[in-house]
Automatic annotation (TrEMBL):
Source taxonomy: Eukaryota, Viridiplantae, Streptophyta, Embryophyta, Tracheophyta
Protein location: Cell membrane
Assembly and interaction partners: Homodimer and heterodimers.
Protein name, per record: CASP-like protein
Cytoplasm keyword on record: no
Domain of life: Eukaryota
Length: 209
C-alpha cells in the first residue's frame, strides 16, 4: 500500500506567501506626463496673454477719439472729431480683435478644464486648437497690417496721393491707435506661439503611439 508523503500545514502556521507589489510606471512615462502638464500650463498662459492684449487693444481703439478746433480764417473756426469709426481699417480692427478675445476666453477655459485631466490636453483637442489658432492668427495678422498701414498714413501722410498727416494735430488719437496696433502685434505673436506649441505637443503624442 502506497504511503501518502504529502503533509498538511499545521493549524495557525504563518503563510510565507508574499503579496505582489504594484509596479510603478516607468520613469520615462512619468517624465512625459510632467512635460505635457508643463505644455498645458504654457498653453493656458499664452491664451491669457491673447485675451488680455486683444481686450486692451479693443478698449484703446474704441476710446481713440479727439476733437479739435481749427481756425480757417480770421474769426472763422471749424470743429473736427477724429475717431476709429471714420476708418474702415479701424472698424475691422475692433471686429477682428473682438473675435480674438472671445476665442481666447473660450479656448482658455477649455484648456484649463483639460489641464485638470491626466495627461493634459488630448491629441484631438490639440488638433482642433492648431486649426483654430492658425485661422485666428491670419485674422489678427491681417488687421494688424491694415491698421498699421492706415496709422502710417496718419503719421506720415502721402504726398503722392495728397493725403495729409493728422497725427501732428490729433496727438491723443494717434497714441491710442498706435498702442492698440502694438497690442494686436503681441496678440499675433501669442497666436503664432500657440500654433507652434500645439504642433509640437501633437507630434509628441503621435510619436508615443
Amino acid at each position: 500500500m502506497a504511503s501518502n508523503n504529502t503533509t498538511s500545514s499545521p493549524h495557525g502556521a504563518v503563510s510565507m506567501e508574499v503579496p505582489l507589489k504594484m509596479s510603478a510606471p516607468p520613469p520615462e512615462y512619468a517624465s512625459r506626463g510632467s512635460s505635457f502638464k508643463k505644455h498645458a500650463v504654457l498653453d493656458v498662459f499664452l491664451r491669457a496673454v491673447l485675451f488680455a492684449t486683444a481686450l486692451a487693444g479693443i478698449i484703446l481703439m474704441v476710446t481713440a477719439e479727439q476733437t479739435k478746433t481749427f481756425l480757417v480764417a480770421p474769426g472763422v473756426s471749424i470743429t473736427r472729431t477724429a475717431k476709429f469709426s471714420h476708418s474702415p481699417a479701424y472698424i475691422y480692427f475692433v471686429a477682428a480683435m473682438s473675435v480674438a478675445a472671445l476665442y481666447a476666453l473660450i479656448s482658455g477655459l477649455v484648456s484649463v478644464f483639460a489641464l485638470m485631466k491626466p495627461g493634459g490636453n488630448s491629441a484631438k483637442l490639440m488638433f482642433h486648437f492648431v486649426i483654430l489658432d492658425a485661422l485666428l492668427l491670419g485674422i489678427v495678422a491681417s488687421t494688424t497690417g491694415a491698421s498699421g498701414g492706415a496709422g502710417y498714413i496718419g503719421l506720415k501722410g502721402n504726398s503722392h496721393s495728397n493725403w495729409i498727416k493728422i497725427c501732428n494735430r490729433y496727438g491723443s488719437y494717434c497714441r491710442h491707435f498706435a498702442a492698440g496696433i502694438l497690442l494686436s502685434l503681441i496678440s499675433a505673436i501669442s497666436l503664432l506661439l500657440l500654433v507652434w506649441l500645439s504642433v509640437y505637443v501633437l507630434s509628441k503624442k503621435i510619436a508615443r503611439r
